[in-house]
Design a protein that fits this description.
single chain, about 475 residues, alpha+beta, Mac-2 Binding Protein, 4 domains, 5 helices, disordered N terminus, signal, glycoprotein, SRCR, Soluble scavenger receptor cysteine-rich domain-containing protein SSC5D, receptor
Amino acid sequence: LTRLRLISCISSISASLAGVLLAEDVDTAKLEVRLVGGPNRCSGRVEVLHNGVWGTVCDDQWDLRDAKVVCRQLGCGTALSAPRESKYGEGKDQIWLSDANCKGTEASLTECKARPWGDNVCNHVEDASVECSGTDIPEPGPIRLVGGPNRCAGRVEVLHEEQWGSVCHDDWDLKDAQVVCKQLGCGDAVLAPIGAKFGRGSDTIWLDDVNCTGVEAALAECPARSWGDHNCYHGEDASAICSDSGITASTSVRLVGGPNRCSGRVEVLHNGVWGTVCDDQWDLRDAKVVCRQLGCGTALSALPESKYGEGKGQIWLTDVNCTGTEASLTECEAKPWGVHICNHVEDASVECSVVDIPEMGPVRLVDGPHKCAGRVEVLHENRWGSVCDDDWDMKDAEVVCKQVGCGSPLSALGGARYGRGPDVIWLDDVQCNGTEESIFDCQARPWGEHNCYHGEDADVVCAGN
C-alpha cells in the first residue's frame, strides 16, 4: 500500500509539473459530477470532470456532509450513506479529489474545501461513493441540453439511432421547452430561445416543426416532422432554459440610458455581445414583453427614434412582432439576428411602470470570464477590498448577484478561484440570509477584521453574463 501511495504521489507531482492540474484553468461553472456503477443514477461511485477527464474522489475524510452536497447537486434528494472503500467498484485513471471537507450547505462539490486537483496519496481501493434517497427521479432519457452553464440550460439535442442531433426552432415555443425541462427533471421552462443561442450543433438536425401541448412526458411524444426531415440549418437550433438552471428571464435584456433600470434603450444579449433593437414595427406589445421580462411591471410606452440615445456596435433585432404574452423578447417573431437595414437613430426604447428597483451598490466582480462572475470586491473608505471565504455560501452569493444586477447565483466559490486580490481584505464570516438588498446588510465581522489571506478570497458565478 505504501508503494502504491508513493506511485500515486509521484504521478500527481508529474501531472502538476505538466500543467494539467491548475485550478485556475477550470471553468468552474461547468463542473460535472456523476455516480457510476450503482443500481440507478442516484447511487454509485462518485466521479468528477476536470480538464475534460473524469476521475474519482478519495474516501479520506469522506462523510455524509460530502455525500449530501453530491446528492443535492444531482437533484437526487438527501444523502442516505457515504460508503468508502470502492463499494461500487474501483475507478480507473485519475483520482481528482481528496480530503473533501463540505459543510453540507454547498451547491456543488467544487465549493467544498479539499486538496488541490490531483493531489492525493490514495489508490482506487479508496474510491468514495454515495447513496441518495431520490431514486424516483425520471431518467434524463435520450435528450440533453448542451453548451449552457449547467445541465438545465442549453441547446436541445435528442438521441436517435445512437446519434445526437439538434432540433430546429421552427414553431419552437415555451410549451416545447416545458416538455424538455420536465423530461430532464429541471423544473419548469423559463425561456425557449431560438437562433442557436447556445451555439450551433455540429451534427444532424433530427426534429423540425415540433408542436407540444406542454403536458407530454417526452419530446418524442410531441407532433413533429419525421426524424431527419427538415428545412433548417444549425443557425436555427432550438434551446431551452429551465428554472433549475438558476437563470431568470431578465438576464438576456437590459434598458440603457434611462432614468432608472425600468426605462431606457432596449439592448439584447446575443453571442456574448449586447446590441440594440431597431424600431421598425416596434409597439406596445413588444414593450410589454420587455417590461415583464425585467420584472418592471407593465409597459407605459414603446418609443422609437433613439429617445434614450443612440447605441453603438450591433443592431441585433428588427421587425420584432410579439403577441405580448411571451416570457422573453427572444421568443417573439423577428428577422434573424443581425439582419436589418437600420441605423442607431432608429434604436427602440421602452418605459415601464416600476421604477423603485435599487441601483447597483459599491460591490463588483473582478477577473472573471464575464461581468457576472469573478472575485467579490467591496468598496469601503474609498478603497476596494476582497471578502474572505469563511462561511461563504449560496445565500451570500444570492445577495451579491442580485446587487450587481446579474440575476440568480450559479456557484459560491472560495479559494481565490478567480485570482487573489491585491489589496485589503475587508469582510470575513459573512452570513446573509439571502433576502438582503446589499452585502452590507448581512452579518459579518467588523470592517477589516479577519483571520484570512488572499488565497481564501471569495468568488461568485451568477446566471447573467
